[in-house]
Write a structure and sequence with these properties.
Blueprint (H helix, E strand, L loop, with lengths): L3 E6 L17 E2 L2 E2 H11 L3 E7 L19 E4 L6 H11 L9 E4 L9 H11 L6 E6 L4 E4 L5 E5 L5 E10 H10 L6 H7 L5 E4 L12 H13 L2
Parallel strand pairs: 1-4, 1-6, 4-5, 7-11
Antiparallel strand pairs: 2-3, 6-10, 7-10, 8-9
């Protein structure tokens, strides 16, 4: 029986936020931002454990109470200089427990509005997939490529264009090999693509966006609040 594990890289500084603390610890509905994605992943019945990846220098984690998330939440203080390095270190750290054929779902700490239904849809869609895949959103807007002055250089066709989200779900063995061969990628799918494989795109929705700029916090709070009163 193939098992599922989550890895949540949370070792970034979140510099685009311009905040006084790392983005993953900013307040969102009375909890640290990071709490929300971890709460969702630890509620997914098929996920055996969710590993959060912190910077070894992280001084914030211990100042919050995470006990409510239960024993399936596990902490790895092995974050690296890049997101890919953080994920690579985590894959190595769990290798004694996670088998090469087990699925690993890598999820951005900053995608706080991930829902259990979205994770279940991803796991269902990829259950028999030989490669793996990711949640993604078909591009709805017309795309423009900019020049250095911020003027439109050209219009890019949105036909068949998707925005990559997370979780990105691959088998532990394949993902470890892919990241070792392509450490410069910005997402796991990019590393798997570099092996010549084609990850499956699983349609998600815009609520699974990445909190990146200060104004994103208010939108995330509205989405979480609307769900809590449904
Ligand atoms: O900066 P960005 O939002 O693209 O980061 C995506 C995810 O990767 C975040 O959850 C961030 O904390 C994580 N990350 C990491 N280690 C780094 C850089 C980013 O775990 N060195």
């Amino acid at each position: 029986m193939t098992r599922h594990f989550a890895i949540v890289p949370a070792a970034g500084s979140g510099s685009r936020m311009g905040a006084e603390r790392p983005k993953q610890y900013l307040d969102l509905c009375g909890k640290p931002l990071l709490w929300h994605a971890l709460a969702t992943l630890t509620r997914v019945a098929r996920i055996d454990a969710a590993f959060v990846v912190l910077s070894p220098e992280d001084e914030w984690w211990d100042s919050f109470d995470w006990t409510g998330l239960g024993p399936r939440l596990r902490v790895l203080r092995v974050g690296g200089a890049t997101r890919a390095a953080s994920v690579t270190n985590a894959l190595q750290a769990v290798a004694a427990e996670v088998h090469p054929e087990d699925w690993v779902l890598v999820h951005d700490a900053a995608r706080a509005c991930l829902s259990v239904a979205q994770v279940d849809a991803l796991i269902d869609a990829l259950a028999d997939d030989p490669v793996g895949g990711l949640l993604a959103l078909p591009v709805a807007d017309t795309l423009k490529r900019a020049d250095v002055d911020g003027r439109v250089l050209m219009t890019v066709s949105r036909e068949a264009m998707w925005q990559a989200q997370t979780p990105q779900m691959f088998r532990h063995g394949l993902l470890s090999r892919a990241l070792a061969a392509a450490p410069g990628v910005t997402d796991e799918a990019g590393a798997v693509e570099a092996l010549g494989l084609a990850p499956r795109l699983v349609a998600a929705d815009a609520t699974n966006f990445k909190v990146t700029y200060p104004q994103d916090l208010a939108l995330a709070a509205q989405i979480l609040h609307a769900r809590s009163v449904q």
